[in-house]
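Bump. Still looking for LLM class flavin-dependent oxidoreductase structure tokens.
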Amino acid sequence: MQFGVFTVGDVTKDPVSGKTLTEGERIQQMVTVALKAEEVGLDVFATGEHHNPPFVPSSPTTLLGFIAAKTSKILLSTSTTLITTNDPVKIAEDYAMLQHLAEGRVDLMMGRGNTGPVYPWFGQDIRNGIHLAIENYALLRRLWREDVVSWEGKFRTPLEGFTSTPRPLDGVPPFVWHGSIRSPEIAEQAAYYGDGFFHNNIFWPADHTARLIQHYRSRFEHYGHGAADQAIVGLGGQVFMRKNSQDARSEYRPYFDHSPIYGGGPSMEETMEQTPLAVGSPQEIIDRTMTFREKFGDYQRQLFIADHAGLPLKTVLEQMDILGSEVVPVLRKEFDALRRAHVPEAPTHESLKAAAERAASLESVSPEAVGLEGTR
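Sorry for the wait, here they are.
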């Protein structure tokens, strides 16, 4: 199972110190968090994509390419790549380039985002959101899997004999997660292609999350990709930890209250009760995260938000140290012990490459050879 952190890249005033980072400082902070994630032994660092204040990660491939040059192990991902407002040709080429630079340590999460005004900024209509997600992704898959593509759709100009460059590393496209918090159509899309489904459930109660994941699992099986419990599932979450729970809640409260995500809504206690937000001791975070498996079944990726709402970098890095030393090792051991043998691990470039090589090897064996082999 993969554990990691994701960032939304918000520039938010620290409600305790009163300091607000510059955009440049916030971008450098995200880089520092990614390097720390690798240092403490996490598996994944992911960034969102936003095109409006107070968020800065407008170019995920630029950020992740820079991080790739400074790391050697951690898998680099997105916690949203806007499949609706980005041109699928540009996505195909940008992420293939990143895949080469990072030597395969790349996957991405397709999503529609949560900012309605982004659609007209990029010449699209929000009322077409689901249809854009379906059409654009269908084209993206072809661009990664076919050397020459001729295509015509509704939302962009046709392509005639087009080849995207560079081609995916080793002929293996990056693994794709489809991220959604409310749309069964996106869960259906993930199931249809046998891709991963990521429910970024930071806002939602468990029963809603369970229904959408179950829909994805049942449709994954329906389309012949494996048993329902073999579907590839990822979950979001958010944590804040101190040695004891009262210190954690006291320290985190002003950041929660002024958060661009949570501020102005239900109280911290109500949010903790109704969503995966966990503020407390390391053991409380372990116990809470283990309940995810009970509610949603075996899954392959768990990402936490660690740096948002103006938290100072020193505090964020302390959270990363706790995750790496006290929380994730226990979670990894517990999840691995409970995972049933037939449930797959999270896909990586190496596992996808090996699967492609096995498939190619089987295709190269003639029926006659198979028949002769069976008589020996």
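The mean pLDDT is 93.

Edit: fixed formatting.
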